[in-house]
Amino acid sequence: xxxxxxxxxxxxxxxxxxxxxxxxxxxxxxxxxxxxxxxxxxxxxxxxxxxxxxxxxxxxxxxxxxxxxxxxxxxxxxxxxxxxxxxxxxxxxxxxxxxxxxxxxxxxxxxxxxxxxxxxxxxxxxxxxxxxxxxxxxxxxxxxxxxxxxxxxxxxxxxxxxxxxxxxxxxxxxxxxxxxxxxxxxxxxxxxxxxxxxxxxxxxxxxxxxxxxxxxxxxxxxxxxxxxxxxxxxxxxxxxxxxxxxxxxxxxxxxxxxxxxxxxxxxxxxxxxxxxxxxxxxxxxxxxxxxxxxxxxxxxxxxxxxxxxxxxxxxxxxxxxxxxxxxxxxxxxxxxxxxxxxxxxxxxxxxxxxxxxxxxxxxxxxxxxxxxxxxxxxxxxxxxxxxxxxxxxxxxxxxxxxxxxxxxxxxxxxxxxxxxxxxxxxxxxxxxxxxxxxxxxxxxxxxxxxxxxxxxxxxxxxxxxxxxxxxxxxxxxxxxxxxxxxxxxxxxxxxxxxxxxxxxxxxxxxxxxxxxxxxxxxxxxxxxxxxxxxxxxxxxxxxxxxxxxxxxxxxxxxxxxxxxxxxxxxxxxxxxxxxxxxxxxxxxxxxxxxxxxxxxxxxxxxxxxxxxxxxxxxxxxxxxxxxxxxxxxxxxxxxxxxxxxxxx
Length: 648
Description:
Elements: E1 4-10, E2 13-18, E3 25-27, E4 29-34, H1 45-52, E5 57-60, H2 61-66, H3 68-83, E6 89-92, H4 95-101, H5 108-117, E7 122-124, H6 136-156, E8 160-165, H7 171-182, E9 187-190, H8 194-198, H9 202-212, E10 221-224, H10 233-238, E11 243-246, H11 248-254, E12 257-260, E13 263-266, H12 278-282, H13 293-321, H14 324-332, H15 336-346, E14 363-364, H16 374-388, E15 394-395, E16 419-420, E17 422-425, E18 428-431, E19 443-444, H17 457-467, H18 479-496, H19 498-503, E20 510-513, E21 520-525, E22 528-533, E23 539-541, H20 543-552, E24 560-562, H21 564-571, E25 576-577, E26 581-584, E27 593-597, E28 603-609, E29 623-630
Parallel strand pairs: 4-5, 4-11, 5-6, 7-8, 8-9, 9-10, 10-11, 14-19, 15-16, 24-27
Antiparallel strand pairs: 1-2, 2-3, 12-13, 17-18, 20-21, 21-22, 22-23, 24-26, 25-29, 27-28, 28-29
Helix pairs in contact: 5-6, 6-7, 7-9, 9-15, 11-13, 14-15
């Protein structure tokens, strides 16, 4: 079965490694479609690999089979010999030709047998292509035929098998297809979407992939047929697509057009040197008119491949940095159809929440849709629950507060009634004690640069205090210790909930603050850091903190249970691999730091989750939790960020 390892992630998007007989494919990956006849290739697979770093390609097994000269070479030397390519090769089955021409001469068994004979690294089932407009009964029938063919193919192939996910425009059929394909295939290929891509029907594309995505096995690579334009790569990766195949580079070259991440540029009208890549330094785009039609097509095809490879690299880098949502938002400003697709995505946050990271390095506002990201939805829901648990305090109107205004803020009114202070932020009203948590803490948006046109926060606060004499006076020298206790209580409750916090000895805890920013950096007891507070403003337990948690609230603390075979390795600081996870508490989220225990509940270590609880144990390869602290390790304190002035 499949050998897919997740290395890094940003929500559904995954940077991973798919192992094949001819080497690994680093995902998300672009697989250029190459013609099996070397004489008809605008760029050779070897050039793609050596010059652009594109490590895998896809070609048509059907066209190869149908051409006796090509078939003979492929049978004798293998598909790798025919293409003169030593990297992974995926082969298509002829389903697209069947869709385009109405029929093909090859049977499903012949197609798979030929792909097996020529040494395809990833063979594809000859599926029934379902048009987006197909009636439900037709879509259902095609789905069943495809699954039956896939089952027969699985029985006849030991190597990697790509099983198309069909179902047309019907979400329940897409879901059924995804579940069944996950039981059969190694690569799960969302099919029947080429017309949607060609016609810029990206909203329907999003619906098709979103209907299937929650039902695809997490340990399989996900392929999207026909997603070859670089403007779609970031959007596809955001939906969890790992493999993209592209013939767009040659199709648009034949039309005399350049592919760029934000659209398509006709070469005919170019009068300026808009690109200075290696190809354009050799032959500027403005000089292509001097070339013959064939040479111009070759140059454009190679340029389109270069632009596509660079965009896929940007996508992988964004996943590494946790900024893929920002990249998608920037890309969707290029076309209204893409903006509509993004709006469709943000209207269904439940698709993303199971794998949504608990934190990212930063939150940068790009478009109006930025405030509808899943991380914002999750945060707002948690804030609502947090505020609902408060003991009926007196609630005041929200003003744009920040922690540095604490010395003016009374915690009680003159009658001793508790006051709840909330700050008006771009992401909604947030209790002041939670202002440093992700995503509101590292939020960077338009308002930060419009301060000359905003009322002064301090003036707004003083106006509120002056207008209501019942609010009491400032705290004087008492504001700092009072506020320390408030923040300790809030940060731990935000992480663990009120029941666990009630069992902790809060009174003995103290905070350590940054000398530059005054932000909380750790929570300690008796001089030992028990929780480290990162730039995300959230409390992450050290090993000593996990000891306190498990001893104070046994049975209540969310944890990951480690198989006995791996227990001592984890206790020594080694990462926990997915296959050694016995159980993960469903309350845990990606990027949380959680206790790791053996089946007897002995604490082994603490670690940062790379997989969601629903994924742990289901992936045969890869790290599930990266250990950050164990019995013999010192607590890790994050470096302080450079202070950024946001107000005058």
